[in-house]
Design goal:
Number of strands of chain B: 0
Shape of chain B: elongated
Shape of chain A: globular
Order of helices and strands of chain A: HHHHHHHHHHHHH
Strand content of chain B: under 5%
Order of helices and strands of chain B: HHHHHHHHHHHH
Number of helices of chain A: 13
Oligomer: heterodimer
CATH topology of chain B: MetI-like fold
Radius of gyration of chain B: 24 Å
Radius of gyration of chain A: 24 Å
Largest sheet of chain A: none
CATH class of chain B: Mainly Alpha
Mean pLDDT of chain B: 85
Helix content of chain A: over 70%
Low-confidence stretches of chain A: none
Structural class of chain A: mainly alpha
Low-confidence stretches of chain B: 1-26
CATH architecture of chain B: Orthogonal Bundle
Mean pLDDT of chain A: 85
Number of domains of chain B: 1
């Protein structure tokens, strides 16, 4: 078990280093830093001076090493646009995003798993078709499309919820007021993936021999489902849930832009628009780390819950 | 006159140095029967039929919208007028007819998505065939590349790359195609791994056929099923991603009537003129849902 986790961790670290190299290389291809800061009318001398001050006239590997070691030490540089330290800004925004994503997650995971299992238990009937087609439709919708339709209905026509969202206070009413509308588009996509997985897992478990044995030996249906079916069928679903936690961070770029929510997704978008290279590098790398942690947790949890994976390694 | 019950003449056994045709020639009959079976299976699925009809309409619209669009999508009149007989879906902030713009908006997103998908397919099929057939180092590198790509949200990669290299539509096609190709390659590789152990591949090898010939003429025709399914799934993702990128301002630029771009632009007047964003959003929703229905129907039928 320990070996399995260590191996996964090592693999994730290697991937992360490769990703950081790619992020750095790509963002450094991006024209002249001094020119971005000083604007199109500055003299070439002034641009060269700023380049030298920032050290961007050194060779790429040297700059990568400096950037990477500084990043690990906690010095993420200075934002060109906002002229503030990148780290404090990025972390504050990340926390805001986690609040929004966490809200969506807590609401949708039980609903998706529940409906997925219900669909499986009524396999082939109308209810199953209904849930499957609903999932299939919701999964397809880009977040901004469902977001805009929801805005038109709930913010413009009914005026129940605000059209732009902010970080809520701890008051439950305020949390729902601020976060419900922006989190629904995220929930739509999550629902599609999680419910599909829960349904498929449950259907294949229902087909297995040990479930047939449990039914034939006269166990009540409820006991069969809760003790024998769900325990096994939800295993792959748990993995999907964690992988989708990583997806959420990507979906946040669109949702936070649409609802002007001050999270990390909007920060990525704004720094891309403003060509704020240090901020863009740090936020993208931060998202990569979260993605990897989500995937790693999925693997480890799967191994913890499933002895076959754990012991075969 | 030929006897009715006469057995067909035996085909000559091809000599190893003769130019090779496809080795199993009788498959054309089998393939036609299989196609008919697949077609019948698809038509029995209401989800597929609904998806296919809507998708075909939008493809038709993307090509022929100019022939039946009621007004010039770029012509100005009274701005922000509500839906009426003159303007079925109202007018936008510049007084352009929303209905006409919705009809004109399908072609950009479909064109870019299809191009990106084709690029991803070509790259992915080539790499997948080579990796699956020869195994070895190409295979290892490919699988690591897929792992790295899948451990990252595509939209973030696209934003980073487009910010650096400029957000032309060509770059959008390239970045999506390149993100897709290792994913396609993995599907193709998995199918090739099964096929390469089949007897017809061994037979082709014995006849002296070389690797590229076996891959292109023997294995490829036998893995069209998984490739068709993967292509539709990729197209669905491509539309999702292209629309999202144009909403974020990457790729298609104003005054194009592209749906994602229109929603981004008219978002500022959403409170007073919701029709300016609602109709493009519904059009886009119908397109992405339709393609997902088609992909799901194909998957059900071809993988059963």
């Amino acid at each position: 078990m320990g070996r399995f986790i260590l191996k996964r961790l090592a693999l994730a670290l290697v991937t992360l280093i490769l990703v950081s190299m790619a992020v750095f290389a790509v963002s450094q291809l991006h024209g002249d830093v001094g020119r971005i800061i000083l604007g199109p009318y500055a003299s070439p001398d002034a641009v060269a001076r700023v380049d030298h001050q920032l050290g961007v006239d050194q060779p790429l590997p040297v700059r990568y090493w400096k950037w990477a070691t500084a990043f690990v030490r906690g010095d993420w540089g200075q934002s060109y646009l906002l002229n503030t330290p990148v780290r404090a800004m990025a972390l504050t925004r990340l926390v805001n995003s986690l609040i929004l994503a966490g809200f969506a997650f807590i609401l949708i995971v039980p609903i998706s798993i529940g409906l997925g299992v219900v669909a499986a238990l009524s396999h082939g009937k109308v209810l199953d078709r209904l849930i499957t087609v609903m999932g299939l439709s919701l999964i397809a919708l880009p977040e901004f499309v469902s977001g805009v339709v929801l805005l038109v209905i709930f913010a413009v026509a009914l005026k129940w919820l605000p059209a732009s969202a902010n970080v809520p206070s701890w008051n439950p009413a305020d949390i729902i007021h601020q976060l419900l509308l922006p989190s629904i588009p995220l929930m739509f996509v999550l629902f599609g993936y999680i419910a599909r997985m829960a349904r498929a897992g449950t259907i294949s478990t229902l087909d297995s021999n040990y479930v047939r044995t449990a039914v034939l030996k006269g166990l009540p249906r409820r006991v069969v489902i809760f003790r024998h079916v769900l325990r096994n069928s939800l295993l792959p679903t748990i993995t999907v849930v964690f992988v989708q936690a990583g997806y959420l961070v990507g979906g946040l770029v669109v949702i936070e832009t649409l609802f002007s929510y001050p999270g990390i997704g909007k920060l990525v978008f704004d720094s891309a628009q403003g060509h704020d290279v240090p901020m863009l590098e740090a936020t993208v790398l931060l998202i990569a780390i979260i993605y990897m942690v989500a995937n790693l947790s999925a693997d480890v949890l799967y191994a913890v819950l499933n002895p076959r994976v754990r012991l075969s390694d | 006159m030929e006897a009715v019950g006469q057995p067909p003449a035996l085909e000559p056994i091809p000599s190893p140095d003769a130019p090779l045709g496809p080795i199993v020639t009788s498959t054309t009959v089998g393939r036609r029967a299989r196609l008919r079976e697949v077609g019948a299976g698809l038509l029995r699925s209401p989800v597929f039929v609904v998806g296919a009809v809507v998708l075909l309409y939008w493809v038709f619209d993307a090509i022929f919208w100019q022939l039946y669009v009621p007004q010039d999508p770029q012509a100005f009149s009274t701005s922000l007028s509500a839906p009426s007989g003159a303007h079925w879906f109202g007018t936008d902030d510049l007084g352009r007819d929303v209905f006409s713009r919705v009809l004109a908006g399908a072609s950009s997103v479909l064109t870019i998505s299809v191009e990106a998908t084709l690029l991803g397919l070509i790259g992915g099929i080539a790499v997948g065939l080579i990796a699956g057939y020869y195994r070895g180092i190409v295979d290892d590198v490919l699988m690591r590349a897929v792992d790295a790509l899948l451990s990252f949200p595509g939209i973030i990669i696209a934003i980073l790359v487009l910010t650096v290299f400029g957000s032309s539509t060509l770059n959008v096609v390239l970045v999506i195609g390149i993100i897709f190709s290792p994913i396609v390659a993995r599907t193709v590789r998995a199918a090739v791994l099964v096929e390469r152990e089949r007897e017809y591949v061994a037979a082709a090898k014995l006849l002296g056929a070389r690797g590229p010939f076996i891959m292109a003429r023997e294995i490829l025709p036998n893995i069209t099923g998984p490739i068709v399914v993967e292509a539709t799934v990729r197209l669905a993702y491509a539309i999702f991603t292209v629309a999202t990128l144009s909403f974020l301002g990457f790729g298609i630029q104003p005054p194009s009537p592209d749906w994602g771009l229109t929603i981004a632009q008219e978002r500022t007047v959403l409170q007073i003129a919701p029709w300016t964003v609602l109709f493009p959003a519904l059009a886009l929703a119908s397109l992405v849902i339709a393609i997902n229905f088609v992909a799901d129907g194909l998957k059900e039928v071809l993988e059963s």
